[in-house]
């Protein structure tokens, strides 16, 4: 994990006048024959760019002058990889807007008409803190924490913030915290949190808009169901946003439909999320100055989609009940990890089903043996009596 690699200009070394830090974090996973690059950044708008190369020696190249001092906001080509011909696949997820709406009828349903919502928080207009102060290169974690610079909404962040906590991994396992998502060394997870932001309504709820760019031909949203809620009690679903090419999954975004209303997560403070349909995205809607625009030089040839995820369920008191919402998802390369029954659950199910089967089998065998012994006893009793007339019948004339 490296912070602002190779940057020597003043915009990287100190905070500008508006206190916004130009954060760019490079996470690299090298295999024996390939490399996976994750670049997280708050430049322009919070974005994660994932690039897979078929070379274990591939390198990230950032033209910082072009990225941060581009004229007319055109930073296209500021991010590249060498050797360029070894780039196999790339995609980006941008976190564009936070919607807030007044849920007076407690329907927990994001309005279809934007005019029915409050003015959104534009994440490209945020004042971000210094990621380097929270970066843990051993645990591969760190926080992007920000507050809006939109003049008519700055006061709402007087004691609050919006943050993304990112976490990369060296092994395959499950997260220690709920919802206990599976992770691999080929992915990064993030916790998105709205903390103590002053709501503008008495029944305010929030939702987040994600934008997705990919070179793959197919971008699909799937809802997977499971019979097991061992790791996330009460949650039997898993959402996957997969990017595929020639029937091969290249990357994914994965999450469970649950968020938490306290920083200490437990089943008692869990509340569902809602995931909405994918929408087509015009190139003009993509935020300027982001690392996605800096890397993808031709947006027209990409698959472009947008997706909303809203937080909360009817009857949970809405955001104002706790002034806290936190949601977890992961971004990864290759096939997403699938939910499997744990060894404990397999043993419990096997025991629960096996014991009745054993009882039935032994019960049936016992009954059969008793029946056979009964038939033998009856035969012995009948043999003790002589046959009438020696076994012959006299005719009556």
From TrEMBL:
Q: What is its main location?
A: membrane
| Membrane topology reported for the UniProt record | Single-pass type I membrane protein
Keywords annotated in UniProt = Glycoprotein, Lysosome, Membrane, Signal, Transmembrane, Transmembrane helix
Q: Which InterPro entries match?
A: NCU-G1 (IPR029382)
In terms of Pfam families, this protein maps to:
NCU-G1 (PF15065)
Q: Which residues form a coiled coil?
A: none
TM regions (residue ranges):
343-369
Q: Where in the cell is it found?
A: Lysosome membrane
What superkingdom does the record give?
Eukaryota
GO CC term, one of those recorded: lysosomal membrane
Q: Does the keyword Cytoplasm apply?
A: no
Q: What does the subunit comment say?
A: Interacts (via lumenal domain) with lysosomal protein MFSD1; the interaction starts while both proteins are still in the endoplasmic reticulum and is required for stabilization of MFSD1 in lysosomes but has no direct effect on its targeting to lysosomes or transporter activity.
Q: What does this protein do?
A: Required to protect lysosomal transporter MFSD1 from lysosomal proteolysis and for MFSD1 lysosomal localization.
Q: Which family does it belong to?
A: Belongs to the GLMP family.
Protein's recorded name: Lysosomal protein NCU-G1
> What organism is recorded for this protein?
Branchiostoma floridae
Where is the organism placed in the taxonomic lineage, from the top? Eukaryota, Metazoa, Chordata, Cephalochordata, Leptocardii
